[in-house]
Amino acid sequence: MNKFELQSKLDLQKWLDSERNHRDMCGMYDYCKYCDKNDATPCATASIALEDAMNSINDVKYAHSSLGKKFDYEKVMTKKANRKSLTFAEKFALSDDIVKERYEILKKAFTTTEKGDLPIKSRISKQCDTYRRGGDIIGKITIIGTSLRINLPLDPDAAEYNDGKTPHVNMGHKKVYEEVPFQFKVNSKLALKRALALIEQVKAL
Prior knowledge:
Blueprint: H1 3-21, H2 42-61, E1 65-66, E2 69-70, H3 73-81, H4 88-94, H5 97-111, E3 120-124, E4 129-133, E5 136-144, E6 147-152, E7 169-170, E8 182-186, H6 189-203
Antiparallel strand pairs: 1-2, 3-4, 4-5, 5-6, 6-8, 7-8
């Protein structure tokens, strides 16, 4: 069944449900949260997106590890329900595919070096993924809530970063970020592009 056939099927179901319930059922289905009214087949596209999301959840549920760390879905969800802190690996496992894709891009940017340069190594701890060149920390990747962020050894108060184009937070007051106080949220394609430019700037120092 192609998208247009699925759209027709869902339109018919929506009309029948609306007649039965004496109200417009548009926006009342589980898949509606993925709806884009500008799409030629909004219901079909949203329904497929919901199915993909459910499959992703099932993949996480039966995963044995995340970023090389042991992963127990039931225990993690219990921790989350009890508002207990999750590890970086646990947060990563529960993240959507977009966050995971951006993380892989950022990791590659940090660790790719020119021939003859000191290698940059990654170490995943409970809180974050830390990147070191020799004995120096050149960056950290964290997940706060559902947001992917990078921390860099840049001056958050420097004029070049306060022109309104690079929104960031100074996290130097927290011990874990003392060496990398500049925190930048990577929550869009544009932010990812800017994050990659910042990483290259740090690697050139």
